[in-house]
Amino acid sequence: MTKKVLLVGVGGVGAIAALGLEWRKQSEVTAVVRSDFDKAIKEGYHIKSVDYGEIKNFKPSHIVKSVKEAVNYGPFEFIVVCTKNTPDIVLIEEVIQDAVTDETAIVLLQNGIGIERPIIKRFPGTIVLSAVSIIGSSNHNCEINHDYIDKVSVGYFDNNVTSKEEQERVAKEFVELYSTENNDITFDPNVKYTRWKKLVYNGTLNPICALTGVDVARLEMFGGTNALVRQAMYEILSVARADGVELDKDICEIMIRSDDPLWYSPSMLIDMRKGNYTEVQVLCGNVVKIAEENGVPIPILKVIYDLHLVIQKSKMEKNGLIELPKERFIPDKEHPPL
Amino acid sequence: MTKKVLLVGVGGVGAIAALGLEWRKQSEVTAVVRSDFDKAIKEGYHIKSVDYGEIKNFKPSHIVKSVKEAVNYGPFEFIVVCTKNTPDIVLIEEVIQDAVTDETAIVLLQNGIGIERPIIKRFPGTIVLSAVSIIGSSNHNCEINHDYIDKVSVGYFDNNVTSKEEQERVAKEFVELYSTENNDITFDPNVKYTRWKKLVYNGTLNPICALTGVDVARLEMFGGTNALVRQAMYEILSVARADGVELDKDICEIMIRSDDPLWYSPSMLIDMRKGNYTEVQVLCGNVVKIAEENGVPIPILKVIYDLHLVIQKSKMEKNGLIELPKERFIPDKEHPPL
Hints:
2 copies of one chain form a homodimer. Chain A is an alpha/beta fold. Chain A folds into 2 domains: 186 residues, Rossmann fold (3-Layer(aba) Sandwich); 126 residues, Orthogonal Bundle (N-(1-d-carboxylethyl)-l-norvaline Dehydrogenase, domain 2). In chain A, strands 1, 2, 3, 4, 5, 6, 7, 8, 9 and 10 form a 10-stranded mixed beta sheet that branches. In chain A, strand 3 and strand 4 form a beta hairpin. In chain A, helix 10 packs across helix 13 and helix 13 crosses helix 14. The termini of chain A are far apart. The mean pLDDT of chain A is 96.
């Protein structure tokens, strides 16, 4: 019997996930598509994939504009969230709430640390899976360029309600559903470790490249990696340790060298160049939060975060999410910062 | 007898200084003009000044393209340097060296801390004056808009060769030469104090606005002033103290409020918006240097500086001052950061 899967956010990652899930005809994917909807419903996606070759006119089983509309094709056993993770702009738990039933497991196929907290809080007892993706894939107007293997670690964020066995069973079920002969989807017994490990890169090189406007190669050659990144990585290690995850210091050099010999532009840098919001909350803000909860000093990461926070708010202003007063005011208790 | 003055750099500050110096016919100003030369020599400057009213076709006594050419109108008793202060891009001591004689005093009418060091080192025994300007004035293609009084504190950077009395006498001579009934030029007995005080603003609000892309009002309303600026100012106070200057903590709030109620964009922010080099070395780099010499921890200022340093080098690359290797390399002893 096919499983019903709701997939929210068809970017580079989401498109390949939709394809992988439909590949063995074991899932029926309903995809929520926003900006590309008209083209996607008419022509589908044009995929050039290192895993699957060229596929023209790929369409998931159903393409809809909203989660509300998607509910007609439910109930869903899995809701796979592949959107950019910007909880300061959009709350995932609100986006998906209409589609969550007692039978649903939520899969966060997204970047960041601590991203499960608001989901588990909003849907207590629901199984929430962590999916950490290593993939090179982009979507420009339904043209999917996928040039690095779809490699995903899947585990569960313990919801402290369901038994560990059951959470593990569901995680493995999702691995089975998503696995094809072409991709590399594995069960991850230690979600926390995997997420912190990825954050050694994504919480340092990524936001620092974004602030300075240069790729990782230039950052290193211009002295920024020595001056800032390595120390910032050590700060991540300290926070991870306080959060119960021991990462070997060698991981820092591995991450710094991980893009060699590419002049690689990390995601936040690309977002900055496009004037888009960045994933600052899940890559930086949540680290600051966990550090503060545990009393871990993070002098570099804190400054990086505070700078990005101002930039993010400035974008909110440009997009009309923040309205400025006519006259400059002094933030105080009655007028807190915007 | 008129004094011969060489003025290097006719921006908003330099144009009003040239006007002030020529005002009472006691100085003969030779101005070195680069980008505006053709227009300046033909039409002069169109000045709209809060101090002097509207003046059309203002020309200093001589307008030349280079210091080499200026030497024909010397020897100069004063060389007034009004250029943007970017020692990582241009060395002032090299620019002016052909015009410095035994009779010359050099006036640094420029921003920053520690800016006298390379000048005194290069011209030992030469009197070097400090001129700190509070002015609102801009130059766009020989159109000078001057909207806040020309207020300058003039003192001397002790060169440890000439007697203090003689250095003070020369500083006061310059004050006399520059003073008109319209401006406010005063002798400053404590140059170091004045420069550190101005740096409480210019070493914090200025580079932080530049990194976040917002004016001082938005920075405050978006939380950046509380999160970063105030603490960064305290760091400046610590470095100043180690450098022998005691600044009252109240100065921080005074600086934070000094632009009220304007939505003011500081100079480094304007430079960033224009894609220009910033004065990062004299506003941030020299603070880091003095802090390190004295073992003063400056966690925030260090990060701000390191980020700006990468940005500055990225601009050098764009302008062809730094040539990147074809292949990404790993900085080491043989291949230091660029």
